């Protein structure tokens, strides 16, 4: 319906995730003593949930969503952008995301599918040094101009 009403721009998508703690009343589910070992196993198995969304750039509407139990976002970029690309029917999609999604094979897969991705480069490795790579600390924010200045 949003596509029919031209509410999606279809060119730019932001991807992000949030972690939510699982909340199951284990006592109500497993009441027998012989299941204590199973409870210990389930405590390890029941992880937090990692909810992912892709938001269109035009009106900031959610295009795609997913819930995983992955402990980080590193392998969620391609699936989320593929969903967005399919829904938007966009041949050349541009994605924006944070450093949690910065993973080489994911970025290469996006490039192979004509998706341009702008991801924050984690400042924890020497790979961020170089003439065309900048860390967050290198950008300046003059409050009176209310914008960031590129290095």
Structure characterization notes:
The chain folds into 2 domains: 12-120, 2-Layer Sandwich (Nucleotidyltransferase, domain 5); 123-151, no CATH class. The longest helix has 12 residues, at 77-88. Helices cover 23% and strands 23% of the residues. The protein is globular, with a radius of gyration of 20 Å. Helix 3 runs parallel beside helix 4 (104-112). The chain is an alpha/beta fold and 151 residues long.
Key features?
151 residues, alpha/beta, Nucleotidyltransferase, domain 5, 2 domains, 5-stranded mixed beta sheet, 4 helices
> How much helicity do the residues have?
10-25%
Major sheet attributes: 5 strands, mixed
**Termini separation:** 42 Å
Binned strand content: 15-25%
Order of strands, widest sheet: 3-2-1-4-5
CATH superfamily assignment of the largest domain? Answer: Ribonuclease H-like superfamily/Ribonuclease H
Q: Can you count the helices?
A: 4
User: And the CATH topology of the largest domain?
Assistant: Nucleotidyltransferase, domain 5
How are the secondary structure elements laid out?
Layout (H helix, E strand, L loop, with lengths): L11 E9 L5 H4 L6 H10 L3 E8 L5 E7 L8 H12 L4 E5 L6 H9 L2 E5 L32
Parallel strand pairs: 1-4, 4-5
Antiparallel strand pairs: 1-2, 2-3
How would you summarize this macromolecular structure in one to three sentences?
This protein has four helices and five strands; from the N terminus they run E-H-H-E-E-H-E-H-E. It is α/β, with parallel strands linked by helices and 151 residues long. Strand 2 and strand 3 form a beta hairpin.
């Amino acid at each position: 319906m949003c596509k029919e009403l031209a509410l999606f721009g279809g060119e730019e998508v932001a991807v992000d995730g949030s972690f939510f703690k699982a909340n199951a009343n284990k006592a109500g589910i497993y009441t027998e003593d012989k299941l204590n070992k199973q409870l210990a196993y389930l405590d390890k198995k029941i992880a937090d949930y990692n909810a992912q969304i892709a938001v269109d750039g035009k009106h900031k509407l959610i295009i795609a969503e997913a819930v995983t139990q992955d402990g980080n976002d590193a392998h969620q970029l391609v699936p989320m952008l593929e969903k967005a690309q399919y829904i938007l029917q966009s041949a050349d999609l541009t994605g924006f995301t944070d450093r949690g999604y910065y993973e080489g094979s994911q970025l290469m897969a996006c490039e192979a599918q004509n998706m341009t991705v702008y991801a924050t480069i984690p400042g924890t490795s020497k790979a961020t040094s170089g003439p065309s790579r900048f860390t967050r600390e290198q950008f300046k924010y003059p409050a009176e101009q209310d914008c960031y200045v590129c290095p």
